[in-house]
Every structure is written in structure tokens, then in C-alpha cells.
Amino acid sequence: MGRAKRKTREITVGGVRIGGGAPVAVQSMTKTPTTDVNATLAQIRRLSEAGCELVRVAVPQRKAVADFSRIAAAAPMPVIADV
Predict the structure, then answer these.
(1) Which of 7, 26, 31, 44 has its CA 20 to 30 A from that of 78?
(2) Strand 54-58 to 79-82 pairing
(3) Predicted local confidence at residue 71, as pLDDT
(4) pLDDT value, residue 6
(5) What is this structure's pTM?
């Protein structure tokens, strides 16, 4: 017996469709400290060049929120905060 397919609602994140009948979106997560804006943006650019469509960035402390905002504004793809 397989799992029953659950219907999902499609949403759009920065122009990338997720859920519903949308194709699978390639996503990844950065490994750099969020407070190192330049290193994080460099990693995001490499991910984008490799075909990644969405990227998640850890925001573990309040002090990383401002850096996350800078990263999201400069990134070439939608960025999601993992808080």
C-alpha cells in the first residue's frame, strides 16, 4: 500500500512556483555564517549558477537579521530565512 497523495496548494516564492501542480523546485541551504554577508552571497551565486532556484539561510540570532536582509536584497534568487 502506497501513501495517499495529499493535495497541496500552489504558492509562489519570489517567482518560483511550489506545490500544487508545479514542477519540483531545486533548493539548497548555505553553510556560511549569515553574518559573513560576502561569503554567503558568493555561495548563493555559485548555487544559482549550478541551477538552484531557492536558497535557505540560517538566522540563528537577532544580530543576523540585518545581515539576512542585506543578503536577500542582493541575492540572484529567492532567499528563505530558517529562523
Answers:
(1) 7
(2) parallel
(3) 98
(4) 76
(5) 0.87
Grouping H, G, I as helix, E, B as strand and the rest as coil, residue 80 is strand
Q: Which residue has the cell 540560517?
A: 58
Q: Is the dihedral of CA 34, 36, 40, 43 positive or negative?
A: negative
CB count in 10 Å sphere of residue 34: 23
User: 15-66, pLDDT tens digit by residue?
Assistant: 999 999 999 999 999 999 999 999 999 999 999 999 999 999 999 999 999 9
Report the chain's terminal Cα–Cα distance, integer Å.
Answer: 36
Instruction: Kindly report the number of other CB atoms within 10 A of residue 53's CB atom.
Output: 20
Residue whose entry in the numeric block shows the C-alpha cell 500544487? 20
Q: Distance (Å, rounded) from C-alpha 46 to C-alpha 66? A: 22
SS3 18: strand
CB 57 within 8 A of CB 31: no
